[in-house]
Amino acid sequence: MSKKNVIVTVVLMLLIVATTGFAADKYQWKLVDTEDNCQVYTSAVPGKEYIAAKATCVIPARMDVLGLIIRDIANYPEWMQDCKDTKILKVVDDQNDVFIFWFRQHVDLFTDRDMVIKSYVENKYDKGMVIVHGDLTTEIPHDAGKGYIRMPSFSSVFTLEWMDQGHTRISLAVDPDLGKGLPKSVANMLIKTTPLKSLKHMRKLAKDHKIVAAAKASKYNKAVEDAIKAGYIK
């Protein structure tokens, strides 16, 4: 690799770190619970009174099935914990799964929250991984007109790791600021429980025969099959 290409690669890596809330050295994850063969972790967040949370599960489904579920933003209310509504605002790059979308989170006994998120994907099939980032964005102003409280900050990361033909290890990490009007204890409880509940709902959805069939015809299946042919995964 030429010196110029090395510099470009380093710059791109730094940009990825800078544009996501999940810089590797920002969190000190501590295991706080285990449930249904899933692990729950929390971390203090420098400069914030709210925690970040992460859940990791092994789901009996191929990576392409889970990738298809994550891409289907319109269907998030079916499995994403407390998600009541979504709306695609802009398809930035359909082939590379770059989207800007609106998301509404229901909070019992309090005003619902909303936010505008930009998602993008790091495909690392040569390492058996796919990473899906979601970060708060102001690129598109969107007023839902319902009196929701706009969340001041939000970052999320799905990490999919290939285990074998029938199993994927998946993690969901979230670092939100749910905004004014919520006691700290309520906010932190919601943050802690959302990743695990979401992944458990996803695990059930991944058994749907229609979704499995759709995944077989998707670009995600082709990427997995290409990785198998290349010997990256088995």
CATH superfamily, by name, is START domain
Question: pLDDT average, as an integer?
Answer: 91
Q: Please report the number of helical segments.
A: 5
What's the CATH topology label?
Alpha-D-Glucose-1,6-Bisphosphate, Chain A, domain 4
Distance between the termini: 29 Å
Helix residue percentage: 25-40%
Indicate the overall shape: globular
The CATH C-level name is Alpha Beta
Give the domain tally: 1
Structure in words:
The chain is α+β, with helices and mostly antiparallel strands. It has one domain (3-228): Alpha-D-Glucose-1,6-Bisphosphate, Chain A, domain 4 (2-Layer Sandwich). The protein has helices at 3-19, 63-71, 184-205, 209-216, 219-229; strands at residues 30-35, 38-43, 52-59, 83-93, 98-105, 113-124, 129-136, 149-150, 153-164, 167-177. Strands 1, 2, 3, 4, 5, 6, 7, 8, 9 and 10 form a ten-stranded mixed β-sheet that branches. The longest helix is centred in the C-terminal third of the chain and has 22 residues, at 184-205. The two termini are 29 Å apart. Residues 1-20 have low confidence and may be disordered.
